[in-house]
């Protein structure tokens, strides 16, 4: 079996009103793609934010542990966490355009993000970035380097966001609804890109999505959440095609499926 | 079947500073038949919503004409057009934002009735009836948009659209921001309503699987132009335009 790199052990997360995620356990192995699926408010995003130490001030992991390669993330200081966040565990968001600074070029934002982990000369940062751009098939990499986010399409912004988070070569990429704001044709490009990254770098990916077809197209394993509770967790094909849990069945039945002749 | 909306050579340009005008809708012709559910499909910026806004008179066409029940609404006087517009109502993507946040849902649903001379008692009765028709408890009328779930709010928006007893409903991505289980409930509600009230529906959507399930006919738009049309099965199994092929291939 491949190396286990992330482990959630009976995690409970609480906000001021009380617990919102209850007793969630799963583990992620290198190169594995796990999809967290569920409806709005089911706790999907809260769960991956907890792995990044990005819960708001009023959110807290109240029970259980989160291990990254054997280290308990919850016991790390903010300073130690900063070494892991971005460098070891990367993250991309639903709206890539608004996670980029609107008044600075892609290039200068890449230099900034790389420098925040390790001092690195601009020329080398650029070389590294353009090299990655080429690997993942961006045309006109030089032009892209000088572009502002508003000059790019939504899909291109998302792909740039993914590229930036991959520059530090993290072992895990956390993707929070990365395709939800995109048109179907563009959505497929972004899905293909994430699959390609896994091939190229062996990155493990946790994708949070409410779109079951995205989960079906990408994931090795699927975890279904409802109201912060784990409903079903297992091999993707099994959970999606022959679910055992009643809620999962209900969810899968509600998904409109295309019938081709 | 009778044509109830006929659109001929409809064109809408938007002016842009320092640039050439953009043609959001470019020489589009189509018709909607009585009792039919017609889907408008296409990527963002393809002109779907602009067509919806032209049909409901929210914006004015640059060229071409729209006939609703054989009357050309582009040439009609405003006070006459208002009467005709009650035949055609719209449901939007984001239900919470389509209600006034400072007024109750009941007020929002009843507003158009008051404008048509209903007194407050008759309005309240009608609102209760509309809520029941849309599967909501009567006390929802006293709630504010932020106090109810997205699905309940969308049901309320449908109730509001039905208040003036329209014959045509335009749903602009009405289920896109909802969870799949809620989406299914809203589709079931619309299906029930179109059968019991003989509604014709223009269903703007980007989810072809949903369109296949719910619609009789599909128009595929790209860059403001119609590139393909047919029944959902024809479009999915035998797409003609390059864009439609790409769209069908992209479905995961």
UniProtKB/TrEMBL annotation, chain A:
<dbReference type="GO" id="GO:0005524">
    <property type="term" value="F:ATP binding"/>
</dbReference>
<dbReference type="InterPro" id="IPR027417">
    <property type="entry name" value="P-loop_NTPase"/>
</dbReference>
<keyword id="KW-0547">Nucleotide-binding</keyword>
<keyword id="KW-0813">Transport</keyword>
<dbReference type="InterPro" id="IPR003593">
    <property type="entry name" value="AAA+_ATPase"/>
</dbReference>
<comment type="similarity">
    <text>Belongs to the ABC transporter superfamily.</text>
</comment>
<dbReference type="InterPro" id="IPR050388">
    <property type="entry name" value="ABC_Ni/Peptide_Import"/>
</dbReference>
<dbReference type="Pfam" id="PF00005">
    <property type="entry name" value="ABC_tran"/>
</dbReference>
<dbReference type="GO" id="GO:0005886">
    <property type="term" value="C:plasma membrane"/>
</dbReference>
<feature type="domain" description="ABC transporter">
    <location>
        <begin position="6"/>
        <end position="252"/>
    </location>
</feature>
<keyword id="KW-1003">Cell membrane</keyword>
<protein>
    <submittedName>
        <fullName>ABC transporter ATP-binding protein</fullName>
    </submittedName>
</protein>
<keyword id="KW-0472">Membrane</keyword>
<dbReference type="GO" id="GO:0016887">
    <property type="term" value="F:ATP hydrolysis activity"/>
</dbReference>
<dbReference type="InterPro" id="IPR003439">
    <property type="entry name" value="ABC_transporter-like_ATP-bd"/>
</dbReference>
<keyword id="KW-0067">ATP-binding</keyword>
From TrEMBL, chain B:
<dbReference type="Pfam" id="PF00005">
    <property type="entry name" value="ABC_tran"/>
</dbReference>
<keyword id="KW-0813">Transport</keyword>
<dbReference type="InterPro" id="IPR050319">
    <property type="entry name" value="ABC_transp_ATP-bind"/>
</dbReference>
<dbReference type="InterPro" id="IPR017871">
    <property type="entry name" value="ABC_transporter-like_CS"/>
</dbReference>
<protein>
    <submittedName>
        <fullName>ABC transporter ATP-binding protein</fullName>
    </submittedName>
</protein>
<dbReference type="InterPro" id="IPR003593">
    <property type="entry name" value="AAA+_ATPase"/>
</dbReference>
<dbReference type="InterPro" id="IPR003439">
    <property type="entry name" value="ABC_transporter-like_ATP-bd"/>
</dbReference>
<dbReference type="GO" id="GO:0055085">
    <property type="term" value="P:transmembrane transport"/>
</dbReference>
<feature type="domain" description="ABC transporter">
    <location>
        <begin position="5"/>
        <end position="248"/>
    </location>
</feature>
<dbReference type="GO" id="GO:0005524">
    <property type="term" value="F:ATP binding"/>
</dbReference>
<keyword id="KW-0067">ATP-binding</keyword>
<keyword id="KW-0547">Nucleotide-binding</keyword>
<dbReference type="InterPro" id="IPR027417">
    <property type="entry name" value="P-loop_NTPase"/>
</dbReference>
<dbReference type="GO" id="GO:0016887">
    <property type="term" value="F:ATP hydrolysis activity"/>
</dbReference>
């Amino acid at each position: 079996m491949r190396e286990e790199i992330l482990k959630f052990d009976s995690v409970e997360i609480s906000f001021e009103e009380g617990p919102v995620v209850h007793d969630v356990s799963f583990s992620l192995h290198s190169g594995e793609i796990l999809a967290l699926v569920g409806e709005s408010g089911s706790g999907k995003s809260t769960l991956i934010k907890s792995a990044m130490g990005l819960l708001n001030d009023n959110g807290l992991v109240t029970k259980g542990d989160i291990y990254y390669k054997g280290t308990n993330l919850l016991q790390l200081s903010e300073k130690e966490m900063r070494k892991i966040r971005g460098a070891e565990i990367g993250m991309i968001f639903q709206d890539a355009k608004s996670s980029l600074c609107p008044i600075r070029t892609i290039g200068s934002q890449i230099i900034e993000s790389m420098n925040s982990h390790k001092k690195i000369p601009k020329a080398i940062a650029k070389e590294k970035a353009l090299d990655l751009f080429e690997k993942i098939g961006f045309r006109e990499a030089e032009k892209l380097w000088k572009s502002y986010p508003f000059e790019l399409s939504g899909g291109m912004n998302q792909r740039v966001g993914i590229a930036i988070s991959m520059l530090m070569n993290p072992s895990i990429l956390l993707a929070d609804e990365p395709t939800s704001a995109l048109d179907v044709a563009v959505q497929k490009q972004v899905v293909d890109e994430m699959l390609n990254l896994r091939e190229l770098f062996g990155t493990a990916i946790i994708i949070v999505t409410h779109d079951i077809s995205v989960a079906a197209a990408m994931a090795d394993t699927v975890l279904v959440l409802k109201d912060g509770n784990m409903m079903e967790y297992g091999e993707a094909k099994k959970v999606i095609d022959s679910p055992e849990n009643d809620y999962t069945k209900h969810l899968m039945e509600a998904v409109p499926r295309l019938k081709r002749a | 079947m009778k044509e109830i909306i006929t659109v001929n050579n409809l064109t809408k340009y938007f002016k842009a500073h320092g640039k050439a005008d953009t043609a959001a809708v470019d020489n589009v012709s189509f018709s909607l038949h009585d009792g039919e559910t017609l889907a408008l499909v296409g990527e963002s910026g393809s002109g779907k919503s602009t067509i919806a806004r032209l049909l409901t008179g929210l914006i004015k066409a640059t060229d071409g004409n729209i006939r609703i029940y054989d009357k050309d609404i582009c040439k009609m006087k405003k006070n006459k057009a208002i009467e005709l517009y009650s035949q055609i109502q719209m449901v939007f993507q984001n239900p919470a934002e389509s209600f006034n946040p400072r007024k109750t849902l009941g007020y929002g649903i009843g507003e158009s009735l008051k404008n048509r001379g209903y007194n407050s008692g008759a309005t309240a009765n009608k609102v209760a009836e509309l809520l029941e028709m849309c599967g909501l408890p009567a006390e929802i009328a006293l709630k504010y948009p932020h106090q109810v779930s997205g699905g309940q709010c969308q049901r309320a928006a449908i109730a509001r659209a039905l208040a003036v007893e329209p014959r045509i409903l335009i749903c602009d991505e009405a289920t896109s921001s909802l969870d799949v289980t809620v989406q299914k409930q809203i589709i079931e509600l619309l299906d029930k309503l179109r059968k019991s009230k003989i509604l014709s529906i223009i269903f703007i959507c980007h989810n072809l699987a949903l369109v296949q399930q719910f619609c009789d006919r599909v128009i595929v738009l790209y860059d403001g132009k119609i590139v393909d049309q047919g029944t959902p099965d024809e479009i999915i199994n035998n797409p003609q335009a390059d864009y439609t092929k790409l769209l069908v291939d992209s479905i995961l």
